[in-house]
Batch of 3 targets.
Target 1
Amino acid sequence: GAVVSQHPSRVICKSGTSVKIECRSLDFQATTMFWYRQFPKQSLMLMATSNEGSKATYEQGVEKDKFLINHASLTLSTLTVTSAHPEDSSFYICSASPDVKGTDTQYFGPGTRLTVL
Amino acid sequence: GQQLNQNPQSMFIQEGEDVSMNCTSSSIFNTWLWYKQDPGEGPVLLIALYKAGELTSNGRLTAQFGITRKDSFLNISASIPSDVGIYFCAGQRAGGTSYGKLTFGQGTILTVHP
């Protein structure tokens, strides 16, 4: 199957700093990428949908100014957590789809564990 | 956001036993998906279902897309220790503002005792 990578796999940062997480599709062009957040022992919750070259669409309750998403190319999307606080500590997972609507199979990355001290 | 109702929340079984879990929704989905997630990893797709009534197998796994399009189940036969993990169902719509988005169930934590 298609491969999606995330970098870094885990990051620890101080409160108030910003953290950038990268999501790359390694062997296909990802027209659509999705960003999820997963708290311990909970399910994946969709944060936002991004299409290459356009602004991301955020889910209700997700602050777009806090979670900046850039889908600059067909193989790379980045999520920047700005002014991170301890409550932002979570497991962030991206998925990528070759379909413009994301209705084709979504391939998930391995996740990034963010810990904010 | 909306979540699917997935049951059971956890299962403790002996190696060799069969496992069954299901998901229900109050609304219709066009696609049902089943994923497995190991600790610290992203979900891995097990089975995808695209038509109401569809029954699909992947090795020891069998899943069905409910006739009403509001439910799905996953069966694992003859469980082995490496089946341990969290299993998620996910529904996907093909229209409206939810186009392409996945809605996940709460997950079923499976523990297999040797």
Target 2
Amino acid sequence: DTGVSQDPRHKITKRGQNVTFRCDPISEHNRLYWYRQTLGQGPEFLTYFQNEAQLEKSRLLSDRFSAERPKGSFSTLEIQRTEQGDSAMYLCASSPDNTDTQYFGPGTRLTVL
Amino acid sequence: DAKTTQPPSMDCAEGRAANLPCNHSTISGNEYVYWYRQIHSQGPQYIIHGLKNNETNEMASLIITEDRKSSTLILPHATLRDTAVYYCIVSHYNAGNNRKLIWGLGTSLAVNP
């Protein structure tokens, strides 16, 4: 399968703990996006990478959130000191340079107890 | 930001065509219309996109009005597996010419046997 992959698929953590999610984009896709989706809502944009450069961050991305894409391939999204309000599906998408079409992974569902 | 308006829900009989409308009256000349769908608890799936001409692929047809203020996604022979939330999105360019998709609430399509 050469689609976007995300790991883990599910994460349950206690409030105050740190969590890290990984996204592996489609090979040769230079653009990578992170979104957050809560129940009944559409995905909300969090951040965007062009290769290893983080070009845009949403105001939703508080200081507790950090994303990296160190070698321009896979990306990680870390949430520090998790809160119950962080419970959501975290989606990753990638796209090639010549199109806006984004291809999504299956998501990581985070539950903060 | 260009925004879209969709009916919150629709029903369709299995085997019949499903016509999903979308209004995007503030769309700019260089912004594309994208359609994605999301089956429960999965990542969004790309369906089709267009600028001003009608488009067709193996999944669906996209009809865009001449003034580009609205569009219709057509699933020609809906099956039970087409039950999903369908999102109509306009690609958005920010001041830095970075592109992202602004998602609304979508239309929840129920295909009934």
Target 3
Amino acid sequence: GDSVTQMEGPVTLSEEAFLTINCTYTATGYPSLFWYVQYPGEGLQLLLKATKADDKGSNKGFEATYRKETTSFHLEKGSVQVSDSAVYFCALSDQGFQKLVFGTGTRLLVSP
Amino acid sequence: KAGVTQTPRYLIKTRGQQVTLSCSPISGHRSVSWYQQTPGQGLQFLFEYFSETQRNKGNFPGRFSGRQFSNSRSEMNVSTLELGDSALYLCASSVDNSPLHFGNGTRLTVT
């Protein structure tokens, strides 16, 4: 079945450092790909998405490119802030946008 | 616009009991999905309702059920609770074919 693999956390960075969180997927079709973020005590918020190969999703300085050849959707940000500390989830869906398969999540800790 | 509202935020139940969780979607959203989040299994899809019909179902036992009302509000029910049902239950709503908007969840503890 479909699956998503994310790098283990926590990822610990200093403010203004460059961020990469790796995400690879396995799917039989051509899924849509997502990054969601979860702040403590809250639900998930959509960060960005891409629905076809070579699409780049971007939001709030975060970017990810749908790479079909490497089945990857790595999340990047050029300069992280303390307020970016959260858990980041990579997800895919090949049945509309409602039934998502999530990765295990990567906790990001940014220190001043 | 109000977000997805889940009630209650916290719930403590005893093994063998049943529980009902409630979700009010964003106004105009007709699709409601439910997810279970645990440290061990992560985020897992339970089911999705659209216009009062279950449209998709995850791989959970029949003790987990749900329904959707004509105003799109949804409830999920878990019967004969087990310790392993302790989790954060997340509800999400969407306009069809658009990304999910999640609520803050109901944290269920089974003792």
